[in-house]
Amino acid sequence: MTAWTNFPKNLVQPETHTAPRPRFSLTSDIISFRKCRRQYGYFGQDGFVAAQAVQIFFGQIIHQVLDRCHRHYSGFFGHPKGTLPTDANIEQYFDEVEQALRAHGVRPASPVVATQAKQVLKTFNSLEGPTLYPRVIDTEYRLESERANFVLRGVVDVLASDDSGYPEIWDYKGTDMPSPDYSRRVVLRARARGLSEGDEKRGEFEREGGQIVTRARFFDRLAATGEESLPCRARADHRLFAGGEV
Amino acid sequence: MYIQELLEILFPTGLPKQLTSDQGKVVRHPTGPAWILAGPGSGKTEVLAVLVLRLLYVENDPVQQIRVPPESIVVTTFTDKAARNLADRISQYRAKVVTAHPELASIDVSKLRLGTLHGLCNDLLQEFRAPNYQNVRLMDGFEQDLFVHEHMSLIKQPNPPVEIAFWRAFPWMWSPREWKPTYSNPPNRWNSTHKLVTLLNRLVEDRVSIPNLFAAGGQLKVLADLYDEYLKHLDTNFRCDFSQLQARFLNFLQTRLGESFRDGDGTAINPGIEWVLVDEYQDTNPVQEEIYFELAKRSPHNLVVVGDDDQAMYRFRGGSVECMVTFDDACRAFLGIPKASVARYPLVDNFRSHLDIVTFFDDYIRAFPVMLKPGSRAPKPPIRARKNIPQVYPAVARLSGQKLDDLAIAFAEMVRGLIDNNVVNDPSECCLLLKSTRESPHNAGKYVGALMKQGLKVYNPRNKSFAEQEEVQGLLGALLAVMDPDRRYATDPSNRNSIPPDEPEIRSTFDRLAAANVELANYVSRATAALRSKPGQPLDANLQELAYYLISLEPFNTWQQDPVRRVRLGKLTDLLEAYSAMPVLDLTTGQPRTIKDKKTGKVLGLVSRGFMRSSNHNPGEVQGTWLGGFYYLFLGYVLNAGFDDEEDDDVIVPTGMVPVMTMHQSKGLEFPFVFVGHMGENPVISATHQLETLFSGYPANPARTFPRAPASERAEMDMIRQYYVAYSRAKYALVLLGTNTHFAKFAVPLGPTRNWVRHRTNEI
User: Fold this and answer.
1) Mean pLDDT by groups of 10 residues along chain A of 246 residues
2) CATH class of B3-116+267-347
3) Contacts of A102 in chain B (CB under 8 A)
4) What is the dihedral of CA B737, B741, B742, B743, to 10 degrees?
């Protein structure tokens, strides 16, 4: 006789356990998920950390300098509320952020990139600042949308209010080779309604009470194409040297 | 909505799931501090979720007149996984509420400030652009170790007499294997780094007064100086660690900006904090305690703490169970509230375990004289069993064997029998809990061997240390095979001080994998050829990218489908990222090396460790100085550090396998059959206990101190709590595994006296 015979058959009642739904962020995770669900799992859920790339510089500096501009307009840094940042202020904020980014090992790919970034920021500030800053409701604004199998969650750079009272979402976007035409290449402006098809970063957002509900256009398209099941991995034939393939 | 209506929506009449009367009292807690003492399996997460729902939706009720804005509610949990579970439960309840009351959909639950305390500190400091947290890189444990190794004078400027004198003041921090105070040489630099990091973190977490430490003189003054030096390095290098993150958040709360966050600024976006709910409070440390009281400073001080001091297990990570046990004292010290005015809510209904199991573990913790001393446990009544299991069988049993081999065979046969005879539904319902699950003869080795002989698969993610795992060694070996293809650098006698002793094993693991995976072997050959053809040039791929190319190849590609291997590979990429981001220091100046524009001389950036250059002198290799740093700093660290102590909190026990876990891993889990081994253990006073004793003499806030029991008693209580957690995981049956010798002797796992356990268990 072994020890198990002390216990009656069918003692343990089966139970169902539910794991918490995964969280997706509104921007990068959606793109990652769209490209490859498995890859998303690696980066989003299992502790994988994406390779740091030089182009981080451009996105970071645009982000952080514009964030200072919003704060400047809101009356921080010793400036009266409602004051637009000047080019000199942009220079100062740029240098502060660049210095701190250096400490993180984040650097521009070339001095040209840094100069371009600074110019883009000045242009943006003078062209969009006077109309955007007064309409800003909040920056670094948190959003969440409940879906059946997942929770969509994220932070948008700027939540503003358009003329008709609809929310307007601004997502500052940087690349390491920006076009001087900042409005197309650097700053993506996603309006609350009437977005054009084709850009995977754009969705249709609608204010429902206090929650921004994301119309699951990405996910509907995804389900229709079955893209998420396609294998997608880093390619081992990537170049090891600039100009020479391994 | 009245509270009664909310409860009827969440728990409709007729459904088996209803709040108990004790749980209902918590949900109706009016205002002010509340001390919820929740026993094992008492549904504390459920209560916390319902309390949040009440705050969000109830109004015009005697309990609550006005709804609380979600952004005014702080809820903290111990792990990210617990935070996700709680958020998910709140979301699901919200859906029920909104179905019944669509007009309440406008309440945005995503604005709840819910997460781990570390996560919230980071988010709030960023959200409020706290001046002390601008553009700071938050370092994890690995980065902090590297940072201390590279910057702190005690480590980087060898001065044996100074080092020896310093470490002799903390002799209990060293195991004899590491170093002895009688030695004439100082400890090795990596070990000193680990110990110094422990000291620096504990100074913050234990709220030690640095000026008083300085005034104490001797080596404590040296420690205070080192702390100041560390703060300066953090400041000049824009770095912060997890302990300092808490200190910075506490400082932020005491600034005008922090007060405006806590008290609100009159706008809808920033209404201030009204309620602070803390889960797993028994694992809180003194700096966290002060943060919570600072957050709840506004009258009527709605600070609700939930936890079970009997389940405190994280003293070794800085947790002080005394914060939970003396919460009423803390309310008096921080808020001036009389102890008797602190609302107490014991949750003692256990919905998890068989009556005999509940009786056993509740008797166990109450039986030890040390647990009866004032200040050892929070006051609470006995646990009541509420799970109805009608069958009659020995729910608390002991299984013994002459020797460990016999015991392991009997255990494996029992598990096989339980599965084959449908007592359980799946092997994953039988869990073996041990103090250590290394597959060595005295730990899990014999049990695992016996289970495998029975044809059972075993899930034991901590069977070896992190660095001994095949996928970790394989990926490290592959990276080394690209960088130092012929092991020329590793075998050069002049480099022997920088090469870890385990390097040959890592390379042989790679050789074995490459022999079986031609794609991997070919990639490494092509990479070597490319390095040889372009000597002295920077590589386009950085260290981390190179790791990802390798991971895309077999066998790593297939291994990523295994959740346990995948988490380990993920951890390794995390470490590689941290290493890659570290600035390279100039050997002569000690300052970070910079990249300058050749024409203008302007500094363009810092040289970070992730960027490599091919060697000019040894074609086909990465530059020697880079290799030296990688071997010594990265490999040396990974091979020495105890990563296996980390929680794999996202790995779920797979079906079809028998889980073998440490008692720490089992926290928060439950299993139908629980087998607990290591019955012969006795308490050991650790460095943590000694540090607590030492630092308790220098409190930063003399108004809030707790009487510490002697270190030996704290060690005993910690062990009792550890086994209490293990015993209370069992739902249907708890089986103690011991040899005849174990059961014949006295040891803490078996109760306070020699025959205590014999009288309360059935031999099977």
Assistant:
1) 88 72 43 38 45 56 83 85 93 81 59 75 84 79 55 63 68 43 30 30 30 29 30 30 34
2) alpha beta
3) 603, 605-606
4) 80
